[in-house]
Design goal:
This protein is of the alpha/beta class and about 210 residues long. It folds into two domains: about 80 residues, no CATH class; about 120 residues, no CATH class. The protein has seven helices and six strands. The two termini are about 25 Å apart. The mean pLDDT is about 95.
């Protein structure tokens, strides 16, 4: 699995030469047209397919390029992070890969994992965010994507923070992310989880794994 993640990191870093912009809000229509990103792990192949699909669907080439490379980048970074969790001795992966709310269990607690950049509304105030973890987690649940993985069940958030402000680039630093995840998992205590009751029927447990450079 290390070789797989090394390969993913190499490919992800090829995307860093382009600015991070979507040009439009993520939506089901453009998601459907760019779902090929799930089956392509090489940057050069991705670029070729984007050109083909933009021409096939008569889409603006620049807009579709930005949209597709962002989806690809976020997806393959998430896959590498899932690989990291699954290779921790303390983790039991969910054999049902189609389950959208449970990726694994840790000390018999089921979790989904979500990697995210440091929120813009906090204006790079890392110390404040770390001191107000519960407030930040609540915000992350409230402002999560409305796409397929939207839910209020247990989550471990992997938050990347780069001191130069380009937080998104840290999603490609798989070795650094691996170091922080393994450290968190090996020292995990249930008492550090934050408890939420978003609905009368649901008790949710969550925490943040910080990846800082």
């Amino acid at each position: 699995m290390k070789m797989v993640n090394d390969k993913i990191e190499t490919e992800l870093k090829k995307r860093l030469h382009y600015p991070y912009k979507w040009c439009r809000k993520q939506n089901d229509t453009w998601d459907a047209k760019s779902n090929f990103i799930y089956n392509i792990d090489r940057w050069e192949h991705l670029i070729s397919m984007i050109e083909i699909k933009a021409r096939e669907h008569q889409l603006n080439k620049t807009d579709f390029f930005n949209y597709a490379i962002n989806r690809w980048y976020n997806f393959w970074s998430a896959m590498a992070i899932e690989n990291i969790f699954s290779n921790c001795n303390e983790i039991i992966s969910n054999p049902n890969i189609n389950n959208r709310t449970v990726d694994f269990t840790l000390q018999k607690i089921a979790f989904d994992h979500k990697s995210s950049v440091f929120p813009k509304h906090l204006n790079n105030k890392l110390t404040f965010a770390q001191s107000n973890k519960r407030e930040l987690i609540g915000w992350l649940y409230k402002n999560q994507s409305s796409q397929k993985r939207h839910h209020i069940k247990n989550k471990l958030f992997v938050i990347v923070f780069d001191k130069n402000g380009e937080h998104w680039k840290l999603k490609a630093e798989i070795k650094l992310i691996e170091k922080e995840i393994k450290n968190y998992v090996s020292n995990f205590k249930q008492s550090q989880l934050q408890k939420f009751i978003f609905t009368p029927q649901t008790v949710t447990y969550s925490d943040i794994i910080w990846v800082i450079r």
